[in-house]
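Notebook entry, structure prediction.
Reason for the run: the old model in the group folder had no record of what sequence produced it. Starting over properly, with the input documented here first.
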Amino acid sequence: MKRIFTFLALVVILLSSESLFAQPNKKRTKNESVVAGKVVNPTFNGGSIHDFALWVNSQVVTPRSFATSGVSKVVLVEFVVTEDGSVVDIRSVFGANQELNDAAVKAVSKSPKWTPAELDGEKVKVRMTVPVLFEGD
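New structure, fully documented this time:
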């Protein structure tokens, strides 16, 4: 029952997150206008950020100290997909503790190259965020 609830919680986070988590890798000022043009989001193995989240969660190694805690925790990891599809600038932006944050960052750092994002046919960097779920038994 706990695993079903945790899985459903992860699905809800993922389904509600795509528009919040994919961001151009540029800080905007108050007076700057929104960029218009044909945008193609980056893809992970032909899929979306949701597919990447599932992949990351299959790669993460839960620290032994947490494995028997009986609780679930989520760490949000931010990263940049570069113009060549590399995943760089990986860091936790929200987490439970340093040990879980490090494990989540390590899992994301295993990522193969993505198909990069495009803006009007030009490859661009994109900042992304993905939830990494830890379940204690």
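Summary: The chain has a mean pLDDT of 82.
The old model has been moved to the deprecated folder.
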